[in-house]
Design brief:
Length: about 375
C-alpha cells in the first residue's frame, strides 16, 4: 500500500537530475549581463577577422566564470564559423605540451602524435591550420593558476600571444580565468606587455541572486513541491555564506538524495543540514586545492595548532620556505581578507598587542591538505 508522502522504490524526486551536474550549462544565466557584455565586446573584432582583445575573468569559486565563457562559446559557435573556440582546463592540462595538444585536437581534428614530436612542431601545425582556414582562435585558459605551479604559464602565454609575430596572419585571443587576479603578476614582462587583458570581475552572488538562480534549478530539476519555501530559504542562506553557487547546486543535489534515502517526497530541513556538512567540506577541499604552496603551509600550521601567534607562524613558515617577513605578512593578510583564516588581537606581547590566528574551518577538514 502506498503511504502519503512516501516514495515508491522506483520513484524519484528528481525530474531532471542532469541539472545538478557540474558541467550543466543552464539556458537562463541571469545576473552576469555586464560580464557577458564585456566578453562580447572583447571578442567582437574576431567577427571582422581582426585580432580580439584578451580577457581576464576573476573572482572566487562558483561565481559563474567558467559558465560565462561557455555561454560565449555557445553564441560564437551559433554565429560564426570564422572562430574556433577551445577551452583548456589547466588543472588537467597543466603543461605547455598538454595545452598545445588540446588546441591541436580541436583545430586539426585529430590527437597529435604522442612522442617524437616537438612542442614547436605541434604549435606550428596548429597555427598554420588557423592561417590557412583564415580563422581566429579564442582560447579559454580556465584556472590558469595551475600553469604557474609547474612553471608553464609564461611559455604557454608567450606562444599564444606572440604567435602573430612568427606567423603573420594568425589571430589568437586568450580568455584567462583565475580566482585571484594577483597571480597574473607572475607573468614576465614579455608576456605582460602583450597580454593587457580586459579585466572582468565576478563578485560573489548575493542572497537575492542566489535565490533567483537556485529557484530555476529547483523548479526545473525537482518535481513540484519537493522543496518548500522555508527549506529553499535555508539553502539560500547557507549558500550566501560563501557565495559559491557550485556548492549551492551540490547542496541541492545532496539534500535531494538524503530525502530519497528516507523515501520521502519532500526535502526536509534535516536533509539540508546533513548535506551541508558534506557540501561545505567539498567547498573547503576545492579552496585548498586552489591555494599555492605558501598559502597551504600557513593554513596547515594554523589548523595543526588551532591557535598560533603571528611570530610563531612566521617562524614555521620561514623555516619551510625561506621567505622573509614582508612577503609572509602580505600572504597572511590576503588569507585573512579571503576568510581562509581568522585573525584576532590579544592584549599580550612585549610591544603591546599581538596578532593570533585561528582556523576559519573545522579542524577535521584538514584531511584535504596535500
Ligand atoms: N548566473 C548564473 N545563472 C545560473 N547558473 C549559474 C550562474 N552562475 C553560476 N551558475 C552555476 O553555478 C555553478 C558554478 O559556476 P561556474 O561557472 O563553474 O563558476 P566558476 O567558474 O566561477 O567557479 C555552475 O553549475 C553554473 O551552472
Ligand atoms: Mg571555473
Amino acid at each position: 500500500m502506498r503511504k502519503e508522502g512516501m516514495l515508491m522504490w522506483d520513484e524519484t524526486i528528481f525530474r531532471n537530475p542532469e541539472l545538478f551536474e557540474l558541467d550543466y550549462l543552464p539556458d537562463r544565466f541571469p545576473h552576469r549581463d555586464t560580464q557577458l557584455d564585456s566578453i562580447r565586446y572583447a571578442i567582437k573584432p574576431a567577427l571582422r577577422n581582426t585580432k580580439p582583445l584578451n580577457c581576464l575573468l576573476y573572482g572566487p569559486p562558483g561565481t559563474g566564470k567558467t559558465s560565462a565563457s561557455m555561454k560565449i562559446f555557445q553564441e560564437l559557435e551559433d554565429f560564426s564559423d570564422k572562430i574556433v573556440t577551445v577551452k583548456i582546463n589547466c588543472q588537467i592540462d597543466s603543461t605547455r605540451f598538454a595545452v598545445m595538444a588540446r588546441l591541436y585536437q580541436k583545430i586539426l581534428g585529430v590527437t597529435p602524435p604522442g612522442s617524437g614530436i616537438s612542442f614547436n612542431r605541434i604549435f606550428e601545425k596548429v597555427i598554420t591550420k588557423l592561417v590557412e582556414t583564415d580563422r581566429t582562435l579564442i582560447a579559454v585558459l580556465d584556472d590558469i593558476n595551475y600553469l604557474f605551479y609547474e612553471g608553464n604559464a609564461n611559455e604557454v602565454m608567450y606562444s599564444l600571444l606572440r604567435a602573430h609575430e612568427q606567423y603573420p596572419g594568425s589571430r589568437i585571443g586568450v580568455i584567462a580565468i583565475v580566482n585571484d587576479p594577483t597571480v597574473i603578476y607572475g607573468f614576465d614582462p614579455r608576456v605582460a606587455s602583450v597580454f593587457l587583458p580586459e579585466e572582468i570581475e565576478f563578485k560573489p552572488y548575493d542572497l537575492y541572486e542566489i535565490d533567483d538562480i537556485l529557484s530555476d534549478r529547483i523548479d526545473m530539476g525537482f518535481y513540484p513541491n519537493v522543496v518548500s519555501e522555508d527549506v529553499k530559504q535555508e539553502i539560500v542562506r547557507f549558500v550566501a555564506e560563501t557565495g559559491d553557487l557550485r556548492s549551492g547546486i551540490d547542496l541541492l543535489k545532496r539534500s535531494g538524495m538524503n530525502a530519497e534515502k528516507r523515501a520521502s517526497t519532500k526535502i526536509s530541513s534535516e536533509d539540508v543540514k546533513n548535506a551541508y556538512e558534506a557540501s561545505r567540506s567539498n567547498h573547503f577541499a576545492r579552496l585548498v586545492k586552489n591555494m599555492n604552496e605558501n598559502e597551504q603551509i600557513i593554513l596547515k600550521a594554523v589548523h595543526e595548532r588551532s591557535e598560533i601567534s603571528s611570530g610563531e607562524l612566521y617562524e614555521i613558515f620561514n623555516s619551510l620556505t625561506n621567505i622573509g617577513y614582508t612577503r609572509f605578512y602580505e600572504i597572511v593578510n590576503k588569507m585573512v581578507a579571503a576568510g581562509y583564516i581568522n585573525a584576532e588581537f590579544t592584549g599580550k606581547g612585549q610591544k603591546g598587542r599581538t596578532r593570533i590566528f585561528k582556523p576559519a574551518f573545522k579542524t577535521d577538514d584538514i584531511k584535504f591538505f596535500k
